[in-house]
Amino acid sequence: MTPRILIVEDEAALVTLLRYNLEREGFEVSEAMDGEEALLRAQEDKPDLVVLDWMLPLMSGIEVCRRLRRMPELRSVPIVILTARGEEADKVRGLEGGADDYITKPFSPVELIARIRALLRRAQPDLTSETLIFADLSMDLAAHKVRRDGRAVHLGPTEFRLLHYLLRHPGRVFSREQLLDAVWGRDVYVEARTVDVHIRRLRKAINGEGEADLIRTVRAAGYALDRPSAA
Ligand code: CA
């Protein structure tokens, strides 16, 4: 299982930075730019953890926090609050309002990720199992390394995310559109053909000389990670 993180932040540049770093660590990321959107997204995506900015337009972070706590399925979701430097009183109020941790801006993504991992380990120990395996293929999420039959496989960031997604749902067939949504994000405009390009690169990287092709192309439907049928 890949932990899903909801980022609630109105500063677009920070969202981009966090999304990039969290996805690189193997998290699935969704985002909201204000409190209203955050509550909708949270209900829809059921995140495993929420990164919540304190200063938001329309509805404050603390109010979002309180409302999340009132939703039965989100009552115990870990929440990390982002505060500005020196707002000591805000931190206290944030923690009283139901947040689990806070981090002061500016912060390093590495530090935030460490906090996120710690909270997730506490909340859901099975979510943090960090190696995904299929046949002789393995992906170590902590080290960000992929191996096939013991040999290191080098993947670009998109191929890594693509394989990560497929590894989480082995055997399932995904259409190009589904893969675009899951791997590129629903707000990004990319042509469906782009998926074919990255699947081709992924195949080339994981299928060594004489090795079976672990990606199945399903005509008119899409792709699946699958054990090749004996042929
Ligand atoms: Ca803000």
Summarize the structure.
With 231 residues, the chain is α/β, with parallel strands linked by helices. It has eight helices and eleven strands. The model has no long low-confidence stretch (mean pLDDT 88).
General description of the model:
- This protein has 231 residues and is α/β, with parallel strands linked by helices.
- It has two domains: 4-127, Rossmann fold (3-Layer(aba) Sandwich); 131-225, Arc Repressor Mutant, subunit A (Orthogonal Bundle), CATH 1.10.10.
- It contains eight helices and eleven strands.
- The strands form three sheets. Strands 2-1-3-4-5 form a five-stranded parallel sheet, with helices on both faces.
- The chain is elongated and about 65 Å long.
- The structure holds calcium ion.
- Residues 10-11, 53, 55-56 line the site of calcium ion.
Give the secondary structure arrangement, pairings included.
Layout: E1 4-8, H1 12-24, E2 28-32, H2 35-45, E3 49-53, H3 61-70, E4 79-83, H4 88-96, E5 101-104, H5 109-123, E6 131-134, E7 137-140, E8 145-148, E9 151-153, H6 157-168, H7 176-184, H8 192-206, E10 215-218, E11 222-225
Parallel strand pairs: 1-2, 1-3, 3-4, 4-5
Antiparallel strand pairs: 6-7, 7-8, 8-9, 10-11
Helix pairs in contact: 2-3, 6-7, 6-8, 7-8
Calcium ion (CA) is lined by residues 10-11, 53, 55-56.
Query: Which fold name corresponds to the CATH topology of the largest domain?
Result: Rossmann fold
User: What order do the strands of the largest sheet run in, or round the barrel if closed?
Assistant: 2-1-3-4-5
- Write the CATH architecture name of the largest domain: 3-Layer(aba) Sandwich
What is the averaged pLDDT score?
A: 88
CATH class of the largest domain: Alpha Beta
Q: Please, what is the oligomeric state?
A: single chain
Shape: elongated
**Ligands, ions, cofactors:** calcium ion
**Major sheet size, sense and barrel closure:** 5 strands, parallel
Total domain count: 2
Beta-strand share of residues: 15-25%
Q: What is the rounded Rg? A: 19 Å
